Every structure is written in structure tokens, then in C-alpha cells.
């Protein structure tokens, strides 16, 4: 028997991906599996892909049942994690996949999410300098947003090294439809999405303050795009250079010892299918021959490194397990 982990919000896409990873994890046993509207449903009917645990039944989110675990994953809609987390004893470690505890600045929370700010937990991106040790020492960790992970891994080392200016950062990023959650929405119907690209939340996406906080960017123009695919994010990040340093070499040096962040061979560019099902982020960089701007292209699985797999990576650190346990660097393309 290993350590026991529970999942609150297990009926959603991120919750299902968490369950897939946990069920195959060499050191974790699955405890309570909870949902709201799907409570009472057989897990295999909600997530047909989870054959090995399909006979489990989703229960309502009982804090006492969740508290029997060593760690609880909260895969709840934004704004709903704080109330449940407050009912869990301090001895139970918690990883929140929602946004409730990511931001340090209360005014940014109120501006982009609305309502009172619940507080700030340790930020769950191990690849940031010093963050791995902080995560390992923490009982409460806020996993990053999917767009935030994709963009931060591309941009943070360049700003930290003084190679890219923290001002005038421009990002265009396309995401698969699973990033919008599992609730039925007309604009996410197959007939609406297939054969189409559409921008959304232009100029006011909620991940902007998180990206600025994590990267040190001062101003950021971010255009998210809905792409006709179920999962994956491809971000194109551009910034003004401050030195003649090769941005690709800066990224290579920053991630040389990282198991899940890969700067691709020169001339090969990231694409989303190569990261599907993995905890990997693929990066490539160059300098635009016309504008002189730095360009970094970043790809990851929004349900993997952008959500569930990243949360498991943090949980491994928090529980004293090998950081890579139960996680794949390899995608499942095609």
C-alpha cells in the first residue's frame, strides 16, 4: 500500500486525467472520488476510458472522507476550492488545480475573477528557480493555469537572465476545447468548433496577472484562440531583446537538468500532438529577422503539464516521492 490521495471534482476533464495518472502511479492509492452533480454515478459511465477503476462510484464532497487521505487534489471550478480547503485539516496536504490561491495581489483577483480573494498558496511550477524546494516544503500548493504554464516556461528564463525586456510582451496562444471545461456550451459544439479558429477574452484573460507574477513581465498583450482540437496549447511568445544573447541557448541552459521541459533541436518547432498525454513542454526559439524580436514557441498538453500531470508532479514533491513518478515525458501522437 502506498500513500492515499483523493480527488474532489473528479467528473471534469482535469479530474478524469488525475484519476488516469493516479490509477497507474507506482506509489499512490486512490481514496475518495467526489463530484457535485454527478455524485452517485459510476465512474466508468462518466469517464469510459478509466476501465481499471470504472466500478468506483462518485460521492458527494464530504470533507471528512477526503481528510482520510494523505493528499487531496481539488479539481473544482474557479472560486470553489477555498470553501472546501478550509474544511480540511492542516495535516492533509492539498493541491488546488483551480485559480483560488494562485495570485498574490488581491486587487488582481477581484479584477479578473470577482469576489473576495481567498489568499495565496505556494505556486506549483517546479521549474521556476527555487520553486521546487518551496513546493516540497509546503502543505498547500496552487497549481498553475494551463496558459500560464505554457507561457511562463517560454518567457521566465529570458526575463530573469536580462535577455528579454519585461515590457511589450505579446502572446498569441491556441488551446483545445477541453480547456473550457466539460459543461455543455453551444459555442463548444463540434459543429461550431470544427473548421474554425476563434479568439476569446481578448485583452482581458484571467491568466494575465498570473503570467506577469510568474515571469516578471510588466506589460503583456495576450490573445487566446480556441482551436478545433480536444487538448493541447501552442503559444507564440514575442519580446524585445535587451542583449545579443541567443535566446535558445538561454532556454537550453535554464532547462538542461529539467526532466519535463525540452528545448527542441534547432530547426524543429513544437506542435501540440507531440505533447499529448505527457507532462512535457516543448520549446523552440529564434530571433525574427525583420523586427529583431525574440520569438519562443511553446507547446504542452493543457490537461497534462497544464493541469493534472503538473499537479501530480507537485504532489510527488510534497509527499517525498520521486518527482517523475507516474508521469511520462513521451506523448501519444498521432
Automatic annotation (TrEMBL):
Protein keywords: Amino-acid biosynthesis, Arginine biosynthesis, Cytoplasm, NADP, Oxidoreductase
Reactions performed catalytically: N-acetyl-L-glutamate 5-semialdehyde + phosphate + NADP(+) = N-acetyl-L-glutamyl 5-phosphate + NADPH + H(+)
InterPro entries assigned to the protein according to its UniProt record, in alphabetical order: AGPR, AGPR_dimerisation_dom, AGPR_type-1, NAD(P)-bd_dom_sf, Semialdehyde_DH_NAD-bd
Keyword Amino-acid biosynthesis appears in the UniProt entry: yes
Source taxon at top rank: Bacteria
NCBIfam families given in the database record: argC
Pathway: Amino-acid biosynthesis; L-arginine biosynthesis; N(2)-acetyl-L-ornithine from L-glutamate: step 3/4
Broad class of the protein's primary localization: cytoplasm
Organism: Virgisporangium aliadipatigenens
CDD domains: AGPR_1_actinobacAGPR_like, AGPR_1_C
Residues annotated as the enzyme's active site: 146
Sequence ranges assigned to domain Semialdehyde dehydrogenase NAD-binding in this UniProt record: 4-136
Protein task: Catalyzes the NADPH-dependent reduction of N-acetyl-5-glutamyl phosphate to yield N-acetyl-L-glutamate 5-semialdehyde.
GO CC, one annotated term: cytoplasm
GO terms assigned for molecular function: N-acetyl-gamma-glutamyl-phosphate reductase activity; NAD binding; NADP+ binding
UniProt keyword Hydrolase present: no
Cellular compartments annotated: Cytoplasm
The family this protein is said to belong to: Belongs to the NAGSA dehydrogenase family. Type 1 subfamily.
One GO term (biological process): L-arginine biosynthetic process
Enzyme class at the top of the EC tree: oxidoreductase
Name by which UniProt lists this protein: N-acetyl-gamma-glutamyl-phosphate reductase
EC number: 1.2.1.38
